[in-house]
UniProtKB/TrEMBL annotation:
Domain UspA, first and last residues per copy: 2-132, 152-278
Protein name in the entry: Universal stress protein
Protein family: Belongs to the universal stress protein A family.
InterPro entries assigned: Rossmann-like_a/b/a_fold (IPR014729), Universal_stress_UspA (IPR006015), UspA (IPR006016)
Matching PANTHER family: STRESS RESPONSE PROTEIN NHAX, UNIVERSAL STRESS PROTEIN UP12
Highest taxon, organism lineage: Archaea
Length: 285
């Protein structure tokens, strides 16, 4: 598996990269090739005497690259200039990456920052599965909030085609999760559909049996009723999830927004790591 890992070379980025448990989780899901990328925004000048931003960035990348290499990954480092989310997503498309990994610190949409840019913009335009890794500030610096990335994975589904794509991504995580929890939330839209609560429970049980056969792990199911985002966040806490898996919900031709209201809200509000899988139509051929 090939991933693009975005970094702004900060102490927070170091915390994400240097977490041994996180590195082991990536290795366990089959990641062998890591492309580190840092983006120098256009508004950062390199014309000052004695200052070469790109060269400084390449030099700074060496220590982070070394961490991945010592963990056994094949690593290539990239320094780009421009808009961070465009450069990150562009590299992922060009490399045909299996996943993009970004770090996020802060909860609210205004404070929710990508290491190197804005996590919401990367999420909105990502055409590859995107893992948002939570980083928290501590008295001594930074650390990842939940080290064991995929140990307890919560998959939330509305049984749409986009949710199905996220479900189909689950077996690629084989080797990392110890438990998977399947969740359907009966919000207003779901309650107005023909799908009953009993139907939803039956479909989840079928999916659970399928995953247990494919992944050889424990799978539990639950159906909740209420506001979709609030219920997903509540279920994260109830089951002790370390990563929440969601399908992005559609596109906008004008702004190329791929993520959808629910997934975007979870990315912005959750304390969990979040893995968002884009619609099939978003993936370039």
């Amino acid at each position: 598996m090939r991933i693009v890992f975005a970094t702004d070379l900060s102490d927070a980025a170091d915390a994400a990269i240097e977490s041994r448990t996180c590195l082991e989780c990536l290795a366990n899901v089959g990641v062998t090739e890591v492309h580190l990328i840092t983006v120098v925004p256009d508004n950062v000048s390199s014309g000052l005497p004695g200052m070469d931003v790109a060269s400084n960035a390449r030099e700074a990348l060496k220590s982070q690259r070394r961490v991945f290499e010592e963990a056994g990954f094949e690593v290539e480092a990239h320094v780009a200039r421009g808009t961070p989310h465009r450069r990150i997503n562009g590299l992922a498309e060009r490399l045909d990456a299996d996943m993009i990994v970004v770090g996020s610190r802060g909860e609210s949409p205004l404070r929710n920052r990508l290491i190197g840019g804005t996590v919401r913009n990367v999420a909105r335009t990502a055409v590859r599965p995107l893992l948002v890794e939570r980083i928290e500030s501590t008295d001594t610096g930074y650390e990842v909030e939940k080290e064991e990335l995929f140990n307890t994975t919560l998959y939330a589904t509305d049984f749409s085609q986009n949710a199905q794509r996220a479900y189909e991504f689950l077996p690629q995580l084989t080797g990392a999760p110890e438990r998977v929890h399947l969740l359907h939330v009966r919000g207003r839209e779901q309650m107005e559909s023909d799908l009953t609560e009993g139907d939803a429970r039956a479909r989840l049980e079928e999916m659970a049996a399928d995953l247990e056969d494919k992944m050889g792990i424990e799978v539990e199911t639950n159906v909740r009723s209420g506001g979709v985002v609030d219920e997903i966040l509540a279920e994260e806490e109830r089951v002790g999830a370390t990563t929440t898996l969601l399908g992005a919900r559609g596109t906008s031709r004008l702004r190329r927004l791929l993520i959808g209201d629910t997934a975007e809200s979870i990315v912005a509000q959750s304390h969990n790591n979040v893995l968002v899988v884009p619609p099939e139509s978003a993936t370039p051929r």
